[in-house]
Every structure is written in C-alpha cells, then in structure tokens.
Amino acid sequence: MSTRSDLLTSAEILLRTKGYAAFSYADLATEIGIKKASIHHHFPTKEGMAIAIVESYLFRFKNQLEQINADNAGVIDRLEAFALMFAQSSTEGMLPLCGALAAELLALPDSLQALTRDFFEIHLEWLQANIASGQSVGELKAELNAVHVARLILNALEGNSFVSWALSDAYAQSSGFDILLEGLRATPPHH
C-alpha cells in the first residue's frame, strides 16, 4: 500500500464518521502516524483530498453495482444485495459516504456538492434500471412508477442508516426493507 492510498482509506473513514467539516489533517496525521506536511505533499487541499476520496469510492461503488447485476439474475435478489451494502456500512460503524456528504451539503465546496448529487444519481439510475427490468419480466408490479420506487428505496436505506447511526442499533434487524420488497413483488413467493 502506498502512503497516498493509506491516506485516502483513513480519510474516507473520518469523512464517514466525523464528517467533512469536523476532520482535519491533524486527525489524519495522528491516525496514520505521519507529519501533516507529508499529507499536504499528497493533497495540498482538503477539498482535493475529499474529491479523490469520492472519486475512488465511486469507482468501487460502480463496480459493486455491476457485480451485483452479474451475480444475481433476479431483481429482488439484486435489491437485497444493494441493501446489504448499507447494512455493511452500518455494521462497520460508518454512514454511507453519500449520506455523510449530503448531511453537510451546504458546508461542502461546490465541487463536492456536485459530486454528491452525481453520487445519488448513480444510485437512482441503477435502481430505476433494475426496477424497470423487474417489471418487464413480471417480477415486480407493472403499475409501479420506477422513478418513485427507486427514490423510495434509496430514501428507506439512507434514512435507516441515519436512524441506526443515531440509535447505535442493528441496522438489518430494524430496516423494514423486507416489508418494502414484499410490496413491490408482482406475486408473493410460494413457500
């Protein structure tokens, strides 16, 4: 691992636990045991570092979404795998990066505000495409509005991340995501 990637990894954790406004290069220097000057060498500005974090995360996130599609034929399975990413984040004691950024949107530089919006759009586009696909094969109710359902799913998962974060409880057990999925199914599964 290079110093730069160690920095990005640690800074991402700080961003998802303390938030953009609250973390400093001093925190980061303490966290990974290097001098602040070394951090400035790699990332002259905090904004530049945050952009690098988000871009690196987005690259991994898009690959995860492609992997979910490749690994799961059924849309319900894909949506469950998508929800698992949020549960995983919660289990690790972190907010989803997009949620952490959105919570501080007005405190962020314009470049990061724009990236945060793009980030949510990527979620919604993937969800909409999968919902439409699930409708076309009869897995999901045909009468549903894919745009609204995508937003509902993202709202539920992001919102649950914040509620679990505030209550320090088990995300998966309290999400109610299964109830949401049941309402989307075209036909209930036969047991």
UniProtKB/TrEMBL annotation:
DNA-binding span(s): 24-43
PROSITE patterns: HTH_TETR_2
A GO MF term: DNA binding
SUPFAM superfamilies the record matches: Homeodomain-like, Tetracyclin repressor-like, C-terminal domain
Keywords: DNA-binding, Transcription, Transcription regulation
Top-level taxonomic group: Bacteria
Signal peptide: none
Annotated ranges, domain HTH tetR-type: 1-61
Protein name as catalogued: TetR family transcriptional regulator
Species per Swiss-Prot/TrEMBL record: Pseudomonas thivervalensis
